[in-house]
Design goal:
The complex is a heterodimer of chains A (147) and B (610). With 147 residues, chain A is α/β, with parallel strands linked by helices. Chain A is built from five helices and five strands, in the order E-H-E-H-E-H-E-H-E-H. Chain B is of the alpha+beta class and 610 residues long. In chain B, helix 2 packs antiparallel against helix 8, helix 10 runs parallel beside helix 13 and helix 12 packs antiparallel against helix 13. Classes of the chains: A alpha/beta (147), B alpha+beta (610).
Chain lengths: 147, 610
């Protein structure tokens, strides 16, 4: 059985780095895959485009999804993920700067498992990522891979 | 031009009925009334003239009777003189005078008997043998003759001494050349027989003529009827016209006949030489029958024509009132909001003009309304667009401004944590400053978004207890700094209507400020209360803190505008701006009063229309 991985969908390199640092600090030593726009995220998940080589049966244990993304935004990605038979049970946590009610509502309507606003304060951000990692990667039992 | 009403118009408005149809009815009614009055007057005139004509002809008849009767009496007088001379000449032949008188009576129809008396009244000769030696000297008429008069007529006597039937007497004195009374010739006349010889003319249709003596007793009536003595004497009481005529002048008038009970038009003419009265009368019925027949016909025709006129008037009235009523309904329909409704342009010219004018006006109003609607739609659209833009802007702010801040904060922290040994104190200080600035900017962004949310979220208005709300907030504030001693007073009964979440937010900003700005004092006091200010309920939060210079009072509520330096009192300057927006959304007003160093009072009202 392969090591569980996290897919981070994040276009901002600063946030990508901060998330990576936070995960390292939290000792959630899982592999972190990073994609930088919505389209690439879907390609990665559905093994399409530049990710056709990837084993389609290998799904991440957690997708950390930003909302504001180039090409396809996070909500579009989420919608597509929930429509696809292989990925519809995937744990998706929206991790975004926005706390707008609309975004929260639409996120949950489309089937997000959780919605977390990235705190501006780094200490809080760190804590959030730590708890996320512990919960989803350690406590949570992910859906099985290819059935 | 409503002000140009003349006074009589004002009176008309007060007196006349309000509705046009009622006024038209009144108009028609008045026209008919005046027509009826005119008709009545005309009939009165005709009636009066007919009546006076009838009376005149009765006078003429009565006068004829009077003339005839007077002539008859004069004739008897002359006859008496002739007979007297003859009787005197025959005085030496016993029985000759009696025979002469009897023969005269038999030739003289109407005369009942003739007697010849001595100057003292003793009967010397008579046509009736049983009257001889009779005595007339006690009679009033005899006294008159004996007193010197040529002749005299008696009143009607109930029963003659000779005949036993009602009779009247004509006595004539016979004198010698020196005027010495030689004897008296007495004619007894039975009135019932007058009709046979004298008053032979017959009248028809209930008309009659009659004779009354000087006492008003009925002597004769034609057509003849059976007259009892009682009837003859009681006539007097039922015939005021005759009673008047007894005074000497011809009279006319209306009487009620004792015989028939009918009303009669009667004329009574005195016969001056006798002191008697001649009368004639006819029933009112027959006298006025033609005019009454005509009246009946005329009334029928008048009713018919009036009915036709009324029908026409009603029709014409409706042709005025109905279009006006329709116009009124059209105007009401329009006024109640159906701006596309137009008045029906028909009816009298004036109504057509008004309806036409109204339609033009309605058209303009509708057009104006439509432009207004279009303009409002356009403006609303623009507003919605700008609102959407604003929303997307705040969304962008929320999302995009935070990321660089997190980077600033995160990396500065990371540096401080993992690279501290390579930095001197100054470097650490700068990193701390970067960290603090990032945190502060984060708060500013949060506040800005909070402001936007206040304007955007839907309000749910319900009853709120501002006192309880303030109490909760103060409880929270005390927990933040348990060491501080602040005396808080909250007025009872601070009930209001509003959105509980927004009002709580506003109140917490005001109370936070009050806590913040009293920090310098040991005897901090805060009061939350309510007062009536200019007929409005005004709530206030009062403190005895630093206060502010009233010169800046109008800048207090501007977003991010602070009167204090950052380090003196912490804050972003968004609180009061938020308070103002919340109060404005409730339709209220917020203002502040202060004296520097002595404290501040923040007032607010909530729209009271609810």
């Amino acid at each position: 059985m392969k090591e569980p991985v996290i897919l981070l969908v994040e276009d901002n390199p600063d946030d990508e780095e901060l998330t990576r640092l936070a995960l390292e600090d939290s000792n959630v030593a899982n592999r972190l895959f990073v994609v930088h726009d919505g389209q690439e995220a879907l390609d990665w998940l559905f093994c399409e485009g530049s990710h056709t080589e990837r084993d389609p049966c290998f799904t991440p244990s957690l997708v950390l999804l930003d909302l504001k993304l180039p090409k396809k935004n996070g909500l579009e990605v989420l919608e597509a993920v929930r429509k696809n038979e292989h990925t519809r049970r995937l744990p998706v946590v929206i991790l975004t700067s926005s706390k707008e009610e609309q975004d929260v509502l639409r996120g949950y309507n489309l089937g997000a498992n959780s919605y977390i606003q990235k705190p501006v304060d780094y200490a809080q951000f760190l804590e959030a990522i730590r708890q996320l990692g512990v919960y989803w990667m350690v406590l949570n039992e992910p859906p099985p891979h290819c059935a | 031009m409503t002000s140009a009403r003349t006074p009589w118009m004002a009176v008309a408005v007060r007196v006349l009925p309000a509705r046009i149809s009622s006024r038209l009815s009144l108009l028609i009614g008045l026209a008919i009334l005046s027509m009826l009055l005119l008709l009545g007057w005309m009939y009165h005139q005709r009636y009066a003239s007919q009546r006076s004509q009838a009376l005149q002809s009765e006078v003429e008849v009565a006068q004829g009777v009077a003339t005839t009767f007077a002539a008859y009496i004069r004739d008897i007088h002359r006859q008496s003189i002739t007979l007297g001379s003859a009787v005197l000449a025959l005085s030496h032949h016993a029985g000759a005078a009696d025979r002469l008188l009897a023969s005269t009576v038999s030739h003289y129809e109407g005369i009942s008997n003739i007697s010849w008396t001595s100057p003292s009244g003793r009967v010397l000769a008579s046509s009736e043998p049983k009257a001889i030696r009779g005595y007339f000297g006690d009679r009033p008429y005899f006294h008159e003759v004996a007193g010197g008069r040529d002749w005299a007529i008696s009143a009607l006597l109930p029963q003659g001494r000779i005949t036993g039937r009602p009779v009247f007497i004509v006595a004539t004195g016979i004198r010698d050349k020196r005027g010495q009374l030689l004897g008296v010739m007495i004619f007894g006349i039975e009135p019932t027989r007058l009709g046979d010889v004298l008053l032979t003319q017959r009248r028809t249709e209930g008309r009659s003529y009659s004779l009354f003596d000087g006492n008003g007793i009925l002597v004769y009536r034609n057509p003849e009827v059976d007259l009892t003595w009682e009837l003859r004497t009681s006539w007097h009481d039922a015939d005021p016209v005759m009673v008047r005529a007894l005074r000497g002048n011809p009279e006319t008038g209306e009487i009620v006949s004792i015989l028939t009970g009918q009303h009669h038009l009667a004329a009574r003419v005195p016969i001056s030489e006798l002191g008697w009265i001649a009368g004639a009368s006819r029933p009112v019925e027959t006298a006025l029958a033609p005019i009454r027949r005509a009246l009946t016909m005329d009334i029928l025709l008048t009713c018919l024509f009036t009915a036709i006129a009324l029908g026409l008037a009603a029709f014409i009235g409706r042709s005025i009132a109905v279009p006006l009523h329709r116009l009124q309904e059209d105007v009401q329909t329009f006024a109640s909001g159906d701006l596309s409704h137009r008045a029906d342009v028909s009816g009298p010219e004036e109504v057509v003009l008004v309806a036409d004018g109204f339609n033009r006006m309605a058209g303009e109003i509708q057009a104006f309304q439509e432009t207004l609607d279009a303009r409002v739609r356009q403006r609303t659209g623009e507003l919605e667009t700008s609102n959407r833009e604003l929303e997307s802007f705040s969304h962008t702010v929320a999302h995009d401004l935070r990321s660089p801040l997190r980077a600033l904060d995160g990396f500065s922290r990371y540096l401080l944590r993992h690279y501290a040994e390579r930095l001197d104190d100054r470097g650490k200080d700068y990193l701390n400053r970067i960290h603090a600035a990032a945190q502060r900017m984060g708060r500013l962004i949060d506040d800005l978004l909070g402001m936007a949310r206040i304007s955007r979220t839907a309000m749910t208005v319900e009853k709120v207890d501002l006192g309880a709300m303030a109490d909760d907030i103060i409880g929270d504030l005390r927990k933040i700094d348990p060491q501080r001693r602040v005396v808080v007073e909250i007025d009872p009964g601070m009930k209001a209507h509003g959105d509980p979440e927004l009002l709580s937010l506003a109140l917490s900003h005001l109370l936070e400020n009050a806590f913040k700005f009293t920090k310098i004092r040991d005897d901090a006091r805060i009061r939350v209360g309510v007062m009536r200010v200019k007929d409005q309920t005004a709530y206030f939060v009062q403190d005895n803190g630093m206060g502010f210079d009233m010169a800046y009072a109008d800048k207090l509520f501007l977003p991010f505008h602070r009167l204090q330096q950052d380090d003196a009192v912490p804050g972003t300057g968004i609180g009061l701006a938020m308070v103002q927006r919340i109060i404005a959304r409730h339709g209220g007003r917020v203002w502040a009063e202060s004296e520097e160093g002595k404290g501040a009072t923040f007032w607010f009202t909530l729209g009271e229309s609810r």
